[in-house]
């Protein structure tokens, strides 16, 4: 099998282990971005992974809570999650679906799992908004699995495109100043993919099944399920599965905003004063 080389493959800058965490009404999860070892990767603020076949670990879900100043992108590999918010949006994502919510100037929402056959497996990404858009109107969209772009760019490589573009396949996510690139890449045993991570974007890779070697063939680094690899600067990335086993990985990248980041719980602004205003506005019912 011959795979055309990218002009240059990014390499792994560092590898970060996930941190056990709990959020919402006691939902147990793994925090990969937004933890002490990796507070953020501008403009990628947080990545949580939920993977449990024990309903007691997640069924209480995430009751109503506020957000301001950023976006949440929820990708559900398996399971069901219902969204409701105080701006009249309601939706249900199921296996392979995506919820994209732009909190903007303020929103209060709930995310509640609905059990079918037990397993809840998915990710939530927090994506920053630039200062000029932090107070924009909230926005919400459900994207069912059938609406996601799919392609097979090489033998043994199957790709789901959530945001950004890969060859002629473009994800259905909204256009944003951060130009997000979010793909789910499945590799058969021995398969190799040249992933078109946009040049200049901050990027990471999270293998969530198997292990994968990232980077040029002569200097690649093997990364295992459950870890997160922060990539160095550059453009595309080569990913290779072991000859004996396949792999599946989430690849996320965004154009850095290079603006101050001020975080307090569910609010992400640029200054401390803006955070204080966000808390005041929420308490006063102005979301």
The secondary-structure element order is EEEEEEEEEEEEEEEEEEEEEEEEEEH
Please report which band the strand proportion falls in: under 5%, 5-15%, 15-25%, 25-35%, 35-45% or over 45%. Answer: over 45%
CATH topology: Jelly Rolls
Instruction: Describe the global form.
Output: globular
What is the arithmetic mean of pLDDT? 94
Structure described in brief:
With 287 residues, the protein is mainly beta. The chain is built from one helix and 26 strands. Strands 1-22-19-24-17-14-13 form a seven-stranded antiparallel beta sheet, with no helix packed on it. The chain has a seven-stranded antiparallel beta sheet with strand order 2-3-4-11-6-9-12, with no helix packed on it. It has a four-stranded antiparallel beta sheet with strand order 5-10-7-8, with no helix packed on it.
3D structure, described in words:
It is a single chain. The relative contact order is 0.20. This protein has a seven-stranded antiparallel sheet, with no helix packed on it. Strands 2-3-4-11-6-9-12 form a seven-stranded antiparallel sheet, with no helix packed on it. Strands 5-10-7-8 form a four-stranded antiparallel sheet, with no helix packed on it. The protein is 4% helix and 51% strand. Strand 25 and strand 26 form a beta hairpin. The chain has a single domain (12-283), classed as Jelly Rolls. Mean pLDDT is 94; it is low at 1-6. With 287 residues, it is mainly β.
């Amino acid at each position: 099998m011959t795979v055309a080389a990218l002009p240059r493959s990014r390499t792994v800058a560092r590898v970060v282990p996930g941190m056990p965490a709990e959020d919402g009404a006691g939902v147990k999860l793994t925090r990969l971005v937004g933890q002490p070892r990796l507070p953020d990767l501008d403009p990628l603020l947080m990545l949580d992974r939920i993977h449990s076949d024990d309903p007691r670990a997640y069924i209480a879900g995430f009751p109503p809570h506020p957000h301001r100043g950023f976006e949440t992108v929820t990708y559900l590999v398996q399971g069901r999650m219902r969204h409701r918010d105080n701006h009249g949006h309601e939706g249900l994502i199921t296996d392979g679906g995506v919820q994209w919510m732009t909190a903007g100037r303020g929103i209060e929402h709930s995310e509640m799992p609905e059990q079918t056959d037990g397993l809840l497996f998915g990710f939530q990404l927090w994506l920053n908004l630039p200062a000029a858009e932090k107070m924009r109107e909230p926005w919400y969209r459900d994207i069912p699995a059938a609406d996601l772009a799919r392609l097979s760019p090489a033998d043994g490589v199957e790709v789901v495109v959530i945001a950004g573009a890969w060859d002629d396949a473009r994800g259905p996510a909204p256009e944003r100043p951060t130009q997000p690139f979010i793909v789910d890449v499945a590799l058969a045993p021995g398969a190799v993919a040249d992933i078109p991570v946009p040049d200049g974007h901050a990027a990471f890779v999270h293998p969530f099944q198997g292990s994968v070697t990232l980077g040029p063939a002569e200097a690649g680094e093997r990364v295992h399920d459950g870890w997160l690899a922060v990539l160095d600067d550059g453009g595309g990335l080569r990913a290779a599965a072991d000859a004996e086993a396949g792999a599946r990985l989430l690849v996320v990248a965004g154009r850095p905003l290079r603006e101050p980041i001020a975080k307090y719980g569910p609010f992400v602004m640029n200054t401390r004063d803006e955070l204080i205003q966000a808390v005041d506005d929420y308490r006063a019912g102005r979301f």
